[in-house]
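Researcher: For the annotation table, I need structure tokens for Elongator complex protein 5. Please keep the output clean. Sequence:
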Amino acid sequence: MLAPFNLPEGIVLLITDELAAPADFLLHRSLISHIKETNGPTKTIVLSVSEDLARWKAVASKFNLNISHQITNGSLEFIDVMKHVQPDFRALAPLETADLHTPLPLRPLFDLVQGALHKADHGDAKLVILDDIATLEWIGFSLLDVSRFARALWGACLKAKATLIIRHHVVTSGDPDDLFRHLLQMCIYHIDVRPLASGRSGAVSGEVALHLGPSTPVGGGVKLIPRSAAVQYKLADNGPVFFQRGTGGGVL
């Protein structure tokens, strides 16, 4: 999954990015490759907080993928998050005192995902994409609500043997927020997309590192990419081109 990183299916993948190097190209690449390259039937669920359906359709069309057709035949479900949930600005219980009876403002969203997973056939290759979780907190959902939703989503995907990809925007590089720490504890792998430390370049759009989640055993056949040896990429009309530092754009 997701060349050139070649990750296994059925994992929790956390993708972090920054304003100067957005990682939406990885989300679109994941969706397209899942549908076009998987042997057998697929089921894809996209929970989109920021990008509307028109944007997903436009990108997919460049790769000869008809999103409308996928939605019509039921293999893809696009959920516009803000049409289904709104933050509750009333006082909430702090994280340490919350219990199972605390109201869950994001429960309707979880129910939609769980229902879509249940509708999928047992043999379908399943992918759930949440883009992007940071915005949920920014618009007023509490850290408790968002972190509990992420864990519930993780549990549902684990039970359904579905791959879960979550994008999280990092506001300040090198200063992880509490939500990031929660997500990092959940993930199997973490892809970190950053701009070049030296600033913008016409030849390079940014760089990508691949890390293990803190609870993931070493091994598994995936080649990790430390930050010190991050792979660079250039965004082109036909998608991202990846290359090693100092190779002059040699494609991986």
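Researcher: And a one-line annotation?
Model: Residues 95-100 have pLDDT under 50 and may be disordered.
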